[in-house]
Amino acid sequence: MEDFVYFFTFQDPSILWVVLGIMLLGIGSAYVGTFSFLDKKALLGDAISHAVLPGICLGFMMAGEKNPVYIVTGAFISGGIATFLSSWLKQNTKLSEDTIIATILSVFFGFGIVLLTSLQKSGNPEIAGLNSFIFGNAIGISEADLMLYGGLSLVIIVVLTLLLKEFRLMVFDPQYGKAIGFPMKTISFLFNVLMILAVVIGIQAIGVVLMAALLITPGAAARFWTDRLNPLLILAAIFSVLSGILGTYVSFVLPQMPTGPWVVVFLSLFALISFLIAPKSGIVSRFISRKKYLRKTHRDHLMKGLYKAKEEGKESLPIEEIYELYPYQKAQTTKSISELITMGFIARNQQTIELTERGNSEAMRIVRLHRLWELYLNESMNIAPDHVHDSAEQLEHLITPELEALLEKRLNYPALDPHQETIPREKNDLR
Amino acid sequence: MITQVENPILEIHDLTVSYDQNPVLWNVDLSLPAGNLIGILGPNGAGKSTLIKAIMGLITPTSGYVKVFDKPLNDVRARISYVPQRESVDWNFPASVLDVVMMGTYGKLGLFRRPGKKEKDLALKSLEQVGMNGFVNRQISELSGGQQQRVFIARALAQEADLYLMDEPFAGVDMSTETAIFQLLQEMTAAGKTVIVVHHDIHSAMTFFDWMIMLNLHLVASGPKELVMNEEMLRKTYGGKLNLLTRVTDMIRQKDFNPLKS
Amino acid sequence: MTFDSNAFLIIFTGSLIAISCGFLGVFMMLRKMSMTGDAISHAVLPGIVIGYFVSGSQRSLEVIIGAGLLGILATLMIDWLRKKARVQLDASIGITFTLLFAIGIILINLLAYKVDLDQECVLYGEIAYLPIDSWITKSGLNLGPRITWLAGLNFFFVSGFIYLLFKELTLTSFDENFSSVMGIPSKGVNLALMSIVSYTTVSSFESVGAILVVALLVVPPATAFLWTKSLMPLLKLTAGLGISISVLGYYLAYWIDSSIAGMMVTVAGGLFGISVLIHSKKPSWLRGTSSVKEPFGV
């Protein structure tokens, strides 16, 4: 707890620096990552992040120490070569895209490991810091590093914000962009540069192996909450910043813990929660709205049963008879009855049930939709009268008033359905 | 205009198919006679391939069922063959023409057993039937589109099935080859096999098919050629989609889940 | 050069692993699932750590079972994300493997006092120490290096698997729909392949490292694919490449004193590069004059 307060009150300026750095970095990579996710290039980011390892090692060799400028430059160059190769191979060989990405990823990484091992055997005392590039160590970032990484993040954020319109075109409709005279090739080149930059600065905190998560997961998680680009970018940035800070906190409390894995775990947690509970497309909300819909269909069917009884001249039905209409569903039926009473559609009179006036017109509407759809299937889709019932049983719950009006017009306000039953309408219905 | 038949080889009962949440085929209900060359016609996006895939069990229908030879599909798989669209596979796959045609015999071989001389002879015979015997050892990526199509037909032939379903087998095939293959299909149906072909050219359809299925999101017609090939049916099939049906489809797509699934 | 039994053992073991991975990799590549292979090889890590923790030994059955389960879990998770949560495939792969790998690393750190695994070993493996890690029976009989036996066993399983299911693997890789129509259980074949890939990953991770297994799964098949036109030659060439990679990788690593596994991958990359230059469709700077179009526009 003390640690928690100490960390989150930012008393220690070095913590403040690190958190600030993580925030900038998180926003930058979430921005770039969301675009690459939408552009279906998520795994290219994975390849690039593995591919920067040899560049880091070469940068280290050139400088002879852990100099951030050399390392960032080296990483950028080898990331660039990997990106170039992946598109070149795609155009010039028969290999499929995923093979190309996996090849580049593993070959660059393997070569990086060779360099790293030789460096380790060289006995340079500064080499220990190099290992943090594999799994990331945000706490180990020095102030000088931070200036460089933070500055580059800022560049990414500014460029992406200024060219939002262009990048949106690149993701959603590059053909159209080309047609209206945008230099799409330059835009996509620029985007690749930004992506490599984002990877290069992200690996210090996350590490090369897991960097892909920082690019992919925020966008994928945010996608569940919104369909629009701006909120998507903001949400992705929030997810990634929060995970970044939480991950840094863990490696502050447990110093032997690398930051990267924890950032990834928190990010995945946000993603999982989004998959489950996001409104509309989340799994839980899809499940709930389906359950709700099933309850509505059951209520609709019950009212239809009452209405049909009325057609046969029975003003009300005994409860027992209603239970018999839906065998094995007694609990559900009881629930539907009490719900319908609350809604004011049916009234209970000791052991019998009848439709109220409102209930009557609602039931009539459902029956009308059922019979209209049956007639539509029969007349417009050539379906035999004995085959139309099942489909109408589903559509009667779905047809909106506008569709109903269209159906009426299309069928010319018919009086009878294919089974010669009356299509019921209110008396004052205008023809 | 839907003609139902006694003792059908294929029976489709109230089939509705959706991709994700998008209904693409509504309430198809038909039965087909054995020993016929049957064409499935309709505009782009009418659900022709979807119908074939649903018959083969490659897509699970939202509702309805299919019976082949009066049995559930899984009991009679060995008697059914399939020619998928040419674009559905990667032709860079390292295999020769003979390798691909031999694949047709794998179903009957069962697990673990390897194809032998008998299977090879069968494959060679099938290649001869489609006029590809000069290309036995050719790598498949080196073939033209029409030749690839013929290899797929030969593969289906090597399966020695009773019912053949072919998805656009004439796409990219030149006129003379198309006629030759049609003649081959006619010989097969004369020998009692049933062949169902997704096709888009009405002229050759008129010449070669015995029976036609016309689709446009729903079943417009199914029956002997003479009965269904008329102006009214063609207008219903090709004269644009039903406005109301498209609206209902849109409405369903915007739901959070597929309400048609029971 | 005199016969160096240690060098021979390392090269022999390396070749066995490279061939096993290459054989499986050919089918993964043809199914366009190379990245799934990559994901599996990352994802088995928590299984290895838990297996190690439970059994207290790195060489136990629990480790293999744990990793196998995690490999299958990863495949199922990718599938679940794609179908149930409706996340696009590439992102599903990315999310799955990063999460599982991260959990593995965290577990290693948490259980560091109990589990003598270090991150470096998991990443790059230590094939160089193989000759000193012998399998000694209770009666004291030295049967030779343990890892070589493991690699041999794995090689036996992989070859047997491919021999028995050759036609099913081929057909489901080429045309999954057609095989389903014929009643070949393509889902089952797929799951079996994923399981054996996970098993291979585990049994190789000690020697070449989890991540470098990916290289052996992907690079030799990709290289051989550029040279061959049918499946048998493709498999044979992949095996040949596996052996040459081991030989060259060992001696180069010996020469510059670096990681053997890393060097094997570098050699594989070199051979791949040469093959690409010879076989690219339009070798722009070697033969032709046309410039590369859209170099960065993937």
- Largest contact between chains: A-C, 76 and 72 residues
CATH top level assignment of the domain at 5-124 and 143-211 in chain C:
Mainly Alpha
Q: What's the assembly state of these chains?
A: heterotrimer
**pLDDT under 50 segments of chain B (min length 5)?**
none
Q: Supply the helix-strand structural class of chain B.
A: alpha/beta
Number of domains of chain B: 1
How large is the radius of gyration of chain B? Answer: 19 Å
What coarse outline of chain B follows from CA principal-axis ratios?
globular
- Percent in strands of chain C: under 5%
Write down the CATH topology of chain B: Rossmann fold
Q: Write out the CATH superfamily name of the domain at 5-124 and 143-211 in chain C.
A: ABC transporter involved in vitamin B12 uptake, BtuC
CATH superfamily of chain B: P-loop containing nucleotide triphosphate hydrolases
For the largest beta-sheet of chain C, the strand count, sense and barrel status come to: 2 strands, antiparallel
Q: Over the alpha carbons, how many angstroms does the gyration radius of chain C reach?
A: 20 Å
What value does the average pLDDT of chain B take? Answer: 88
> How many β-strand runs of chain B?
9
Specify the helix fraction band of chain C: over 70%
Helix-strand pattern of chain B: EEEHEEHHHHEHEHEEHHH
What gap, in angstroms, lies between the N and C termini of chain B?
29 Å
Overall number of strands of chain C: 2
What does this structure look like?
The complex is a heterotrimer of chains A (431), B (262) and C (298). By secondary structure, chain A is an all-alpha fold. Chain A is 74% helix and 3% strand. Chain A has two domains: 2-276, ABC transporter involved in vitamin B12 uptake, BtuC; 285-355, Orthogonal Bundle (Arc Repressor Mutant, subunit A), CATH 1.10.10. Chain A has 19 helices and three strands. In chain A, a hairpin with a 2-residue loop joins β2 (346-349) and β3 (352-355). In chain A, α3 packs antiparallel against α11 (211-222), α6 (128-135) crosses α10 (184-206) and α14 crosses α16. The termini of chain A are far apart. The model of chain A has no long low-confidence stretch (mean pLDDT 85). Chain B is an alpha/beta fold. Chain B is 35% helix and 22% strand. Chain B has a six-stranded mixed beta sheet with strand order 5-6-7-3-8-9, sandwiched between helices. Chain B has a three-stranded antiparallel beta sheet with strand order 2-1-4. Chain B starts with 9 loop residues before the first strand and ends in a 9-residue tail after the last helix. Chain C has 13 helices and two strands. Chain C has a two-stranded antiparallel ribbon. Chains A and C meet through α3, α4, α5, α6 and α10 of A and α2, α5, α6, α11 and α13 of C.
